[in-house]
Amino acid sequence: MSVAEAAETTAVEVVDLATTPLRELNQRLHDLAGGADGPRRWRILTPNGAHAVACGIDAELDVVIEGHVGYYCAGMNQLATVRVHGNAGPGLAENITSGTVVVDGNASQSAGATGRGGLLVVHGDAAARCGISMKGVDIVVRGSVGHLSGFMAQTGRLVVCGDAGEALGDSIYEARVYVRGEVSELGADCVEKDLRAEHRAELAELLLQAGIDDLEPSDFRRYGSARRLYNFHVDNAY
Amino acid sequence: MATMDTHDPWSLRESYLYDRTVIAEIQRAAREGIYDIRGFGAKRRVPHFDDLLFLGASISRYPLEGYRERCDTDVTLGTRFAKKPLELKIPVTIAGMSFGALSAPAKEALGRGASEVGTSTTTGDGGMTPEEREHSKILVYQVLPSRYGMNPDDLRKADAIEIVVGQGAKPGGGGMLLGHKISDRVAEMRNLPRGIDQRSASRHPDWTGPDDLEIKIGELREITDWEKPVFVKIGATRTYYDVQLAVKAGADAIVLDGMQGGTAATQDVFIEHVGIPTLPAVRIASDALQELGLHRQVQLIVSGGIRTGADVAKALALGADAVSIGTAALIAMGDNSPELEEEYAKIGSAAGFYDDWQAGRDPAGISTQDEELAARFDPLLGGRRIANYLRVLTLEAQTLARACGKSHVHNLEPEDLVALTVEAAAMARVPLAGTSWIPGVDNQS
Question: Which of B265, B334, B354, B389 is 20–30 Å from B368 (CA)?
Answer without folding.
Answer: B389
